[in-house]
């Protein structure tokens, strides 16, 4: 048996951290050597993640930059936006590989950080080196990188829905509304007014509806595919689910010759060979529903065409903590390490759940 | 004290029937004289509607067309589509007033029945006489009618969202996607595969996504307002709520001079004087959310403009069983009868719920 | 028309405050003259209670003890435990009537405050004057009091379940387990770790399982009824609902002669004439379920007897914010003021919800 | 690599069938060779179980008793109660091993079938041979059986909660109330009135409260442990969850010398060496909650002692489809086959979910 890769998780007390732990604790090529948390240093991991009792007996440690090199080969950063920023160059210098789940290295154009995140990005060169961790679009680059910028969940769903369409340029214009419905775990593990159960349950609550940050990365990726500027307006809505995100990406198609079969072929061929993409069409459940990917790394893609008015909607359903965050991060990590892409991710969705 | 109006509810065992009962049982100008149900004839109403114990001690009766004239002045028909169709002309002939909650008399153009509902409408003249029961658009006509065709819930939300916009013609084109999220009560009181709790809870499930029937009535009403053809593509999604519907109606605006203030004024002025419309802007809850209208007849209207790409979304939040069905039916009934429009409807929403 | 009673609500930003506002805003004998909130002073009430838009246009004010006498005849105190304590004697001295929703004046024996709440009660005389605001047990005393100590929700459900049983002494011993299931609104409007939606939804979480404070008031009331000491162990469980509490109060009955009919008669006769108690037996919904009292002031009472082993369970279902808090407070207030007991409370439950 | 065991699942379209498929599709010692369904014969398994797309490409077949011997070594029967009854002896005669998830072979005393299930059991000899498939109580017997009678979910939770207590005889009497809260998946995959989403969601609904069938098997197992008759009254309540069951098993302890530490030791030592039992005590989550076992085969056991009144509650939290059904069936199957007990079951719970 080959030696296992030593993995450290920085920021392990949140939901994406917990989800990395759930996956990596039973990943046969990984040894978790360190899990850090400022708030819970010295406390058992299972104090915060009670579901992992029986899987992990470690304690959280403090994150000490100069010691992590002895302990780990790969670092997963599951930190709030802006916190990973200065760790990344130092970790890379120490010869470590980095998977960053924050937005800090997702955008290629440094100006976009000013526009969308309100700060000047101090490492524009690293932005070029980072690979946007969506394997369906960047598999080859992931094989040769040391820095993965793992995508945002609403962006993942939107990009996966629109990529085949944008690639083939079949819509009236390259401008889209992606109406996204997401569960409460997307907001992270810290309680706040909006996450208070009596307020959050039964909500159908639009938020950041005048401009959602994930639009920037979605536009970046789709514009590359199209070879010209694409505009995407992501309109997220908080719904009652804990997990799950559905992007309903709407477009107008005025070409009379486009029919359902053509769109199906175009989507199916675009994703050929991608294990975590399932194309949904017909049957009892004719459209994607996040309900049927819960706990797994799948993205289910489907569509509806209302020819009468020329409206096309492509749906992408993901588990926001898996394909929308930690699952996708492990998928990209597997590729970077030369492991089978689905190592540790052969997890069937949970149903009913 | 003036005499009360005698009201019969035909089809009283379903959810819209139950909601009519909840309202009318404490409506000070109404006496409920008959509630019919084929399935539960002879059984206490509270067997089916256990929440109404203490309010109604009647039994369900069978519906006998020739006897209802002696018992009631106004008939509410809470029946499946197609069942009201032949009752209506007979009830009108008997001198009764009718509030029909089905789709059978909503569309003015008989051809649309063939296209959307698959049958030839046998009473095209009555279609002309029927008033589409959306008080915000047809208040004056409602005062002088004997036949109210009460709107569908997804149509109500969509029409209320888009009316001010369409009226002023500020969008790039008169073609809209109305992405609607709805609770499970919309599907009625009969269990089916899709309503089974383990399948329905946690769903974010698109349905009738290639053409939803309510588009027909929405297009009819919006085209009247615009004075030219309007196209609306309603894309409904079943979400976990029991009650509530949110229409997120998306449009492109390429006019650089349009800003948030203009849109707000335009919406606010359109709805001036309408008691059941609340315009939402700013504050802790800056957008409409059906959560805050539950149990009430309100429609909360708000919007978001993403100027960067020219995307406008108008949101309308309703309780699908109230403003989306029975509440609106009583509101229109009040107008028809000359009662204060909010008689029996001064019900604050329930929160948290 | 007679003049309305002027009411002030102190602590109006929480859930019990909001629920008082929902009821009193449409109560025909009440004028709300002041609503206080330390945190939201000067802000519109509807900022915090968005559902009440259209019903209340007032702002929150600060609570100034010496001014409240000019503004109000009756004060509802919807404050955390321990905060009402010192206000009450001063408000009474000013000639005001007080309805206190906290636990501060519920217990007759001052020693119990030390045992259960950890403080020495400074006004033992007032404890004697206060009337425990459960109308089904203290209706006559409520007519002649100026100080109502409104019961806790888990206590209300437990007392209503066990009163008829305890009164007739039919159980093996006067010791009971009351297994209570409650919704998240019981914890109030302030977010905390345990109320965070991803943690709270889908929980079936026992809490305070080694001794719940409401046991003290339940034992007090039941001991009075029994004429001897009664022991009640309340074991609360947080479940997914927002509203609702079900007490399943378990007892052993070894008397072979007791059957279902006897128990039914005993419960039904105990509650004769109580408008807000509904006895549930048989039918499609043979046991109480909080689902069918949501939004209303009803307590539904039913039972199950497993003769095989001699186990009796009495169930009481309430809406924890209504009969378990604000609804019951208004009911007791109505009695104190000589109004019809159901003034402002003729609200049918919401269903489905 | 050794050859895999060939497994057939009879009745594969329901929830326990689906859960067996989810586990066995990635179980490294199992090959699924046949999945039967009367209703869906010839249809893809993923039509009914959309979550398994990508894992199983087989179709459902009809169940033909005389052919199954060629196809499989072990048969899982996931059929309604009474349907397995006559299959079992024939399958055993054919030399197959059988895991029956129904109640048909759980009870040792044939008279109990008449009492609780209403039929005369035709194979009393087989009842003796069958092993009740709770590994924590019958591990050794499971190693040498060909017929496993897999326990019911409410019984599993109740037995696991009470076993250590009953074994040590520390309670006042051997009579218990087990107040169980369960999710909707327990009712199976067929829609019915009570499972209709608007009725089922937000329910806290007692059912079979005057005698629940699982009491029979719980009493059987606990009586064996105690060496004398034990009485258990299971009182189930349907709550909003899809998955999860919590048994709160209540008892009186009048022995003053019993304290928390003693009870903890007694429970912990009883379960020593059992991988799927986790003892819960202290921390942020001091009591078991089914929320933290979802999707896994764990049973979390904890307790609360209210010394003041002598009340002990032992809590057991399980996923009703896993440790309460299919997970436990696979655990027992592993033991019967000589596989590691956790083969295919090293699945961490999903959180948050």
Please explain how this structure is put together:
Four copies of one chain form a homotetramer. With 353 residues, chain A is α/β, with parallel strands linked by helices. Chain A folds into two domains: 5-129, NAD(P)-binding Rossmann-like Domain (Rossmann fold, 3-Layer(aba) Sandwich); 153-320, Dihydrodipicolinate Reductase, domain 2. Helices cover 30% and strands 20% of the residues of chain A. Chain A contains twelve helices and 13 strands. Chain A has helices at residues 15-24, 45-48, 68-71, 87-93, 110-117, 124-129, 135-142, 153-168, 197-200, 214-226, 260-270, 322-337, and strands at 5-10, 30-36, 74-77, 97-100, 131-132, 147-149, 175-182, 205-206, 231-238, 245-252, 277-279, 299-306, 311-318. Chain A has a seven-stranded mixed beta sheet with strand order 8-9-7-10-13-12-11. A six-stranded parallel beta sheet of chain A has the order 2-1-3-4-6-5, sandwiched between helices. In chain A, strand 3 (74-77), helix 4 (87-93) and strand 4 (97-100) form a beta-alpha-beta unit. Chains A and B meet through strand 7, strand 8, strand 9, strand 10 and strand 12 of A and strand 7, strand 8, strand 9, strand 10 and strand 12 of B.
């Amino acid at each position: 048996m080959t030696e296992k890769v030593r993995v450290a998780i920085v920021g392990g007390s949140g939901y994406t951290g917990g989800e990395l732990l759930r996956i990596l604790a039973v990943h046969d090529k990984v040894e978790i050597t360190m899990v850090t948390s400022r708030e819970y240093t010295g406390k058992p991991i299972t104090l915060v993640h009670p579901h992992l009792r029986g899987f992990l007996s470690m304690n959280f440690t403090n994150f000490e930059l100069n010691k992590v090199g002895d302990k780990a080969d790969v670092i997963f950063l599951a930190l709030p936006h802006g916190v990973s920023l200065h760790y990344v160059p130092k970790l890379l210098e120490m010869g470590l590989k980095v998977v960053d789940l924050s937005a800090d290295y997702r955008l290629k154009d440094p100006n976009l950080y000013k526009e969308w995140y309100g700060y000047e990005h101090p490492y524009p060169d690293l932005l070029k080196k980072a690979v946007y961790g969506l394997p369906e679009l960047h598999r080859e680059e992931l094989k040769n990188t040391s820095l993965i910028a793992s995508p945002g969940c609403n962006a993942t769903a939107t990009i996966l829905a629109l990529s085949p369409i944008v690639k083939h340029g079949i819509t009236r214009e390259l401008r889209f509304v992606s109406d996204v419905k997401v569960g409460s775990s997307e907001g992270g593990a810290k309680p706040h007014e909006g996450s208070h159960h009596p307020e959050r349950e039964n909500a159908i609550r639009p938020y950041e509806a005048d401009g959602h940050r994930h639009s920037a990365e979605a536009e970046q990726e789709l514009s590359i595919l199209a070879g010209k500027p694409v505009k995407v307006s992501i309109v997220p809505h908080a719904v009652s689910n804990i997990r799950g995100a559905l992007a309903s990406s709407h477009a107008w198609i005025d070409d009379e010759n486009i029919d359902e079969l053509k769109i199906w072929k175009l989507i199916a061929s675009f994703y050929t060979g991608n294990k975590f993409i399932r194309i949904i069409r017909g049957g009892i459940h004719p459209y994607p529903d996040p309900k049927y990917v819960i706990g797994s790394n799948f993205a289910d893609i489907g569509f509806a065409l209302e020819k009468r008015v020329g409206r096309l909607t492509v749906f992408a359903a993901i588990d926001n903590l898996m394909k929308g965050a930690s699952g996708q991060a492990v998928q990209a990590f597997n590729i970077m390490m030369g492991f089978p892409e689905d190592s540790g991710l052969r997890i069937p969705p949970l149903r009913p759940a």
